[in-house]
Design goal:
Elements: H1 16-33, E1 46-51, H2 57-68, E2 72-76, H3 90-97, E3 103-108, H4 113-120, E4 125-130, H5 136-150, E5 157-161, H6 168-179, E6 183-187, H7 196-204, E7 208-211, H8 215-218, E8 224-227, H9 238-244, E9 263-265, H10 286-305
Helix pairs in contact: 1-5, 1-10, 2-10, 3-4, 5-6, 5-10, 6-7
Length: 313
């Protein structure tokens, strides 16, 4: 694979062919992610987890991926206990980390921080979310979930629902869907619509893009309903958040009119936008989506850092 030694900051750093290679590798990684097979291509490798913003699934799935591949992690899980509290710059922190590890995975609340980290580091940097910017590895596991459900990515109709303004997961995912000729339906409160720049980039990529604020109409004939949380932490004004909080809720009754094979996805955590009664339906794919984070991130780390296989079997 052509990713060895490379940074991954945006989904735009990957071609369609490279995405397909990662997804193919991820499918082979599933038994290793489940622990039924063992391989250690990252033996003697250290990956630094630089998480300056809260995370559960992303950080733990990355750490699990490294350990399943035989590597080890050094982790920053709370920025308040680092020297950044003393005034150290992000540049200097990353420069220091790059001397301690073979790769760096970074999450930071500021858009553009991952790109800055890549410039500061002489080791590969993987963006695990930079503010309202990009989340490319989430996109890879989202695509893996869709591909597993439908056997293909080409031509799917995907509804992106919720916070499309600040939602870095949908910013990344929409760009990737364009590469596969998907139809993208944007559904959000007007104040949380997809930014104009992202919309133009989608259309320039040849994507079929429509807008439909009404959820029921948006999901008509859809293959995927991708639900996102309205992110309270992205609002500078609490009053503005309260205007849109609770704008939509997906429940089992709403899904009765959906295509039988429709899957409901969510990058998680959810905060009331998907009712618990959806969990028991055949539409619920978000917990499988969460698991697939491990084999997908294993495949990516193996592509960037992996050496000769040891202990495979």
């Amino acid at each position: 694979m052509t990713l060895r030694g490379r940074d991954l900051i945006s989904v735009r750093d990957l071609s369609r062919e490279e995405i397909e290679e990662v997804l193919a590798s991820a499918r082979k990684m599933i038994p290793y992610a489940e622990g039924t097979k063992v391989m250690h291509p990252l033996a003697n490798k250290i990956v630094a987890m630089a998480f300056f913003e809260p995370s559960t699934r992303t950080r733990l799935s990355f750490e699990s991926a490294v350990q399943r591949l035989g590597g080890t992690c050094v982790t920053i899980a709370d920025a308040s206990v680092t020297s950044m509290r003393k005034g150290e710059s992000l540049h200097d922190t990353i420069r220091m980390l790059s001397s301690y590890a073979d790769a760096i995975v970074i999450r930071h609340p500021s858009e553009g921080s991952a790109r800055l980290a890549a410039r500061a580091s002489d080791r590969p940097v993987v963006n695990a979310g930079d503010g309202a910017g990009q989340h490319p590895t989430q996109t890879l596991l989202d695509l893996a979930t869709m591909q597993e459900a439908f056997g293909t990515l080409s031509g799917l109709k995907v509804v992106l629902l919720g916070d499309l303004k600040f939602g870095r997961t949908v910013h990344s995912l929409a760009q990737a869907l364009a590469l596969f000729g998907c139809e993208v339906v944007l559904s959000s409160p007007p104040s949380l619509a997809l930014p104009d720049q992202a919309r133009r980039r989608l259309r320039q990529s040849g994507a079929r893009v429509t807008d439909e604020e009404d959820v029921r109409r948006a999901m008509k004939d859809a293959d995927v309903l991708y639900v996102t949380r309205i992110q309270k932490e992205r609002f500078g004004d609490l009053a503005e958040y309260e205007k849109v909080a609770g704008s939509y809720r997906i429940d089992a009754a709403l899904l009765q009119d959906a295509k039988p094979r429709l899957i409901v996805m969510h990058p998680l955590p959810r905060a009331g936008e998907i009712a618990p009664d959806v969990d028991g339906t055949t539409h619920a794919a978000y917990f499988r989506q969460s698991f697939l984070a491990v084999p997908v991130r294993m495949a990516l780390l193996d592509a960037i850092l992996g050496g000769p296989r040891r202990g495979a079997g």
